[in-house]
Amino acid sequence: MSQQKEVSSLLSYRRIFVVLLICISVSVFLFYNEFSKSKIDWSAISFTPLSVLFLFLALLMVVFRDFAYMVRIRILTDKLLSWRQSMNVILLWEFASAITPGVVGGAAVAMFILQREKIPLGKSTALVIITAIMDNFFYIIFLPFLFLFISMQSLLPLKLEAISGDIMFFFWIGFSILTLANLLLMTSVFVYPKLFGKIAMTIYRLPFLKHRMEKAKKFGEDIETASSELKGKSKSFWVKIFLATCWSWLSRFMVINFILLAFIEIGLADQLIVLGRQLVMWLVLIVTPTPGGAGVAEFLFGEMLSDYIVNGTLALSLAFLWRLISYYPYLIIGSILLPRWLGKKSVS
Predict the structure, then answer these.
(1) Environment class of residue 333 by beta-carbon count within 10 Å: exposed (0-12), middle (13-18) or buried (19+)?
(2) Which of 18, 63, 96, 327 has the lowest tally of Cβ within 10 angstroms?
């Protein structure tokens, strides 16, 4: 029951209010800032039949993303979860991610949800760790793949050209840390299960980290549990998991691409550049301290895509539309679903 109270506190209405307050405050500030520089020009936003089509496709990408997550979680649990249970888990997981900072994510909540859905501890531990590994692995290989079609310089807009060197320096540091961390996790899960635990325990002996020693030890044990649970899985199992991961992440990124196409003419080459810039945005958002990247995401949208959206009013409107389609629904659905789901699980 204490764990339920902890999760309920983490996913409280207070947190939702804070998230909405941040988003609204930033949106108002950005619109005010745009208005102070020049008169807001709504004429730049033209709505055509093609706009309807591409906005529908943007919505469809959100559905595809969550459906791909459902497929992945069904495979990882050996279909112990029904489609309905998978949907509940994914929606609550997305809800948790939407109201917690990116660096925290919804992993702890996901563990709780899976265990309440009667998924064994070992399997739920393995599932959460493998989803993190696969998500990071997709990111790590997709960026170099894009460089086959776009230049590294195109990852940043022209307006940031003066400081592009500094930005890319920190970006590649972040990318390298993510790559090394994922390599360590993969080695620990698939080759030497005790590796992560030994490294973590060595690091957390430092005086200023000693208070987190137990958490490091617990995560090392979780890695060993995951390794044991996943031992002997077939090649087809891993291929399916990876394909579902690619499906979910490409759907996630294509939301912005279709929103842009709804109002702006953009060629295939520029579509690939937009995908590349979203990878930069994503790395920033996972270390953003605000819940779900609230405020920062809206700002980054306008800055990173400024080469394509030269009108400030349009940029702010599309940023809001992007969050309206891919972020706010999880706050609403999660706030309705969580109390009902907790109530049912308490009874059962």
Answers:
(1) middle
(2) 63
